[in-house]
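Job type: complex structure
Entries:
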Amino acid sequence: MVDDFVKRVREALARKETITIGARCNIRYSGRAESFLDKGDRLIIIKQDGSMFVHQPEGLNPVNYMKEGSSHSVRVENDEVKIYSTNIPKKEFMYTTIVKPHFFFSQKLNDTEKIVIAGNEKDMASMLYENPSLIEEGFKPFSLEEHTKYGFIDIFGTDKNNNVVLVECKRYTIDFKAVEQLQRYVKKIKKEKGIKNVRGILAAPSITPNAKDMLHDLKFEFKKVKPPKYLEEIDKTQKKVFEY
Amino acid sequence: MVDDFVKRVREALARKETITIGARCNIRYSGRAESFLDKGDRLIIIKQDGSMFVHQPEGLNPVNYMKEGSSHSVRVENDEVKIYSTNIPKKEFMYTTIVKPHFFFSQKLNDTEKIVIAGNEKDMASMLYENPSLIEEGFKPFSLEEHTKYGFIDIFGTDKNNNVVLVECKRYTIDFKAVEQLQRYVKKIKKEKGIKNVRGILAAPSITPNAKDMLHDLKFEFKKVKPPKYLEEIDKTQKKVFEY
DNA sequence: GGGGAGAGATGCCGC
DNA sequence: GCGGCATTTCTCCCC
């Protein structure tokens, strides 16, 4: 019984299939940290690229995992199945002791598709670049998401009085880290360009009280902007798919 | 065939079992962003708590997912199986169209164990608290990982000249964000306590060049410290488990 | 490979 | 719920 299970796992590993195992097991990990998880029923996944995941029956994240490129060997010791997983370059190790296998399935999966995502920070910056009046009347952007020597600046432009304007977009609530980020860029530009008047604008749907205080101290500005969510693909094929 | 598959999925959902499906499918998501993933072979997992994951055959992270508390309903449309997943409180929606199911398994999993992790930042702070000479001779810590009104400070203490010392630990390379974090704490303490001499020390295994410059400008100090990795549990039961 | 920044980040704790 | 911060964060891009 155990021998059959081991044989199937070994063959699936050799064929580089995607493996799913349900089993009662315990896990030891050593690498960037060390961890131990005592016996319980879990879902174990080993992917074709060598990555491995242990999922408890609840929770979003795997409780233990190994990254791409890990090697796995299976042995039987004292009627228990042990999976030894190693990732030598990353110096990570994981040992899974299977007390009782519940189910096993493996299959070669074919998938060359890549996910298309809309509504990230870049899309938000693009929207503001295309519609500069969302920042303010007279704003003229002239650079978008560029690795300048002043840093990675979301939108760079001038206002109606020809002041240099630097816009930092955030999809979520601005905290003081975002304000500090903007401060770094503004400081650098003032220094390297030798100009005094550089306006800093934070564009986001909301801002924390602490960040607002810091922003006022630094004479920066906050512009309330809702991030765009619009997947062209979806609109083309099927309108309002996601309404309910 | 399709009807049987649908029946099994529905029953497993009703019984709140952990579900694993191998299938050729496409995915649409709308929530914090919007995404589309065209047809390919994937692993689909639905957990007992309503969370759901779609894994491509390679890669560490799920390509799509729904969080805990999501509801899932299954329908047949044009010989395809559609899983409609909704999370109303979070305003998130995911539609999985299964073109061809490869396998299905479901089971109630029992697991009450919690993972024990050693070697995180808290352990590092504790180590330095217990062995203050690792920071410097004469260092006297008097508070550990405390949510003070000055912020969440790793270690708070005094040096041999009775200066206030503030230590921020990082398990990994210090970057300028960590320096800014320390700066916030030091500023706040100087202001609220009305004292001038507050030393700031960053304890970590390494530091980036930019962070080092910033640290020198701010007259802070860097102390090279290796984070501890030691799981008592492991040492008690089995010495040097992770040697190879 | 390191540095810097975003992520559908998540998870934890405290208020 | 929000705020602040760590995470075995991961991922991407650029140098």
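Summary: Residues 236-244 of chain B have pLDDT under 50 and may be disordered. The longest helix of chain B spans residues 176-193.
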